[in-house]
Write a structure and sequence with these properties.
The protein is α/β, with parallel strands linked by helices. It contains nine helices and seven strands; from the N terminus they run βαβααααβββαβααβα.
Length: about 200
C-alpha cells in the first residue's frame, strides 16, 4: 500500500516520514519509507543524494518513472506494508508561471491508497528553503507569495488525484510538534486501511 506524502520543498516531508516510520514501530501497522531517493540515485548512476541533485533537471525528471515502477513492484511483493512515498505532485517554476504535474499512471489506482498533503506556515517553509540554499543546489531563493502559491497548487493537485483515483486526500498541518503531526498521519492511515478492509 502506497501513501503519497505530498507537499512543497521545505515543508518537512522527509523529517515527518522518518519520524512516522519510527513511531509506527510501537503500533500494529508496518510502515516503511518508500526507497525513492535510493532508487533515483541508483538509476541516475550516482552514490549520494547530493550528487543526484547536481544532475540536470531533465535527467532527474526522466528517472521518476523507473523509480515509481520499482516501488510499485516492491508493493506487489508485500501488500501488507504501508510505504510512505515522498512526492511532489506539482512543481511550480521559480522563473515563470509554468508548473509540472506528475502524470497519472495506469497502475496508480492499484497501489496508492491515500494522499497526504503536508502544509505549514509559509514563513516556516521559507526559512527551511533558505537554510537549504547552502547545501541544496536545486533550491532557489523564493518569497512568501511563491510558497503560498506552491502550497495551494499542492493541495489542488492532490484533490485532482483523489477524484481521478477515487482515494482519500487529506491535508495535515506541520505547524505543531513533530510527534503531533506524525500521530495525525498514523491515525489517518489506520482509518483509511480500516475503511478499505470494511469496504
Amino acid at each position: 500500500m502506497i501513501v503519497f506524502v505530498n507537499g512543497v520543498s521545505g515543508v518537512g516531508k522527509s523529517t515527518v516520514i522518518e519520524k512516522t516510520k519510527e513511531i509506527s514501530i510501537q503500533g500494529v501497522l508496518k510502515i516503511e519509507q518508500a526507497k525513492v531517493k535510493e532508487t533515483l540515485c541508483e538509476l541516475g548512476g550516482v552514490k549520494t543524494v547530493e550528487e543526484y541533485r547536481l544532475l540536470p533537471e531533465k535527467t532527474r525528471s526522466s528517472l521518476h518513472t523507473g523509480t515509481t515502477e520499482r516501488i510499485y513492484m516492491a508493493d506487489l511483493e508485500d501488500v501488507n506494508i504501508v510505504r510512505l512515498y515522498d512526492i511532489h505532485l506539482c512543481s511550480c517554476s521559480h522563473c515563470d508561471d509554468s508548473e509540472i504535474i506528475r502524470p497519472f499512471r495506469a497502475d496508480d489506482g492499484k497501489h496508492i491508497v491515500l494522499i497526504i498533503t503536508l502544509v505549514a506556515r509559509p514563513e516556516n517553509v521559507l526559512v527551511h528553503k533558505n537554510l537549504d540554499l547552502r547545501i541544496r543546489g536545486d533550491r532557489h531563493i523564493t518569497s512568501i507569495d511563491f510558497v503560498v502559491k506552491e502550497q495551494r497548487r499542492a493541495i489542488e493537485t492532490a484533490e485532482m488525484y483523489s477524484k481521478v483515483l477515487n482515494i482519500p486526500a487529506k491535508i495535515v498541518s506541520n505547524n505543531g510538534g513533530l510527534d503531533e503531526t506524525c500521530f495525525k498521519i498514523l491515525n489517518i492511515i489506520e482509518d483509511v486501511i480500516k475503511n478499505k478492509k470494511e469496504g
